[in-house]
Amino acid sequence: MAKLILFNKPYGVLSQFTDRGTETARATLSDYIDLPGVYPAGRLDRDSEGLLLLTDDGKLQSRIADPKYKTPKTYLAQVEGEIDEDSLDALRQGVRLKDGMTRPAEVERIAEPDLWSRNPPIRVRKSVPDCWIKLTIREGRNRQVRRMTAAVGHPTLRLVRWSVGDRSLEGLQSGEWRAED
Description:
- It is a single chain.
- By secondary structure, this protein is an alpha+beta fold.
- It has two domains: 77 residues, Pseudouridine synthase I, catalytic domain, N-terminal subdomain (Alpha-Beta Plaits, 2-Layer Sandwich), CATH 3.30.70; 97 residues, Alpha-Beta Plaits (2-Layer Sandwich), CATH 3.30.70.1560.
- It has three helices and eleven strands.
- The mean pLDDT is 92.
């Protein structure tokens, strides 16, 4: 039976087990997960947090990560400014990025979620308000959610992937993982 690991990736951790990119070692999955033979099913940027799935099954890995399967991925995003309905509607219709139009997203404004604290905390500017949105996409371009919110005038300050398909972070604190069947 395939192993499936749900990991709440902290901010600043690379979505890989080794770091050969710099002279100073950065945090990687091996700092948190000591299971042989599992690999990430998709990626999560170093400056993003949240759900990262790992598996030892290549077919499952492809099914989760490949955009052709349109697996929904839901993010909680703290964005700069008070987002309005026009901006939300633009996200719902799809926005033009340098690499083309995005697929329509499901998006709504939400109350500030009860999350773990981030280290380091986001930058706060007293003169600029912020708010939270919940956004679901079914594709996976590089830094897509950040680019989408910036395209509608609300840069992302903090990004947490909450769920992939029907699996979520529920019950996992930052840096924790659990195995599922």
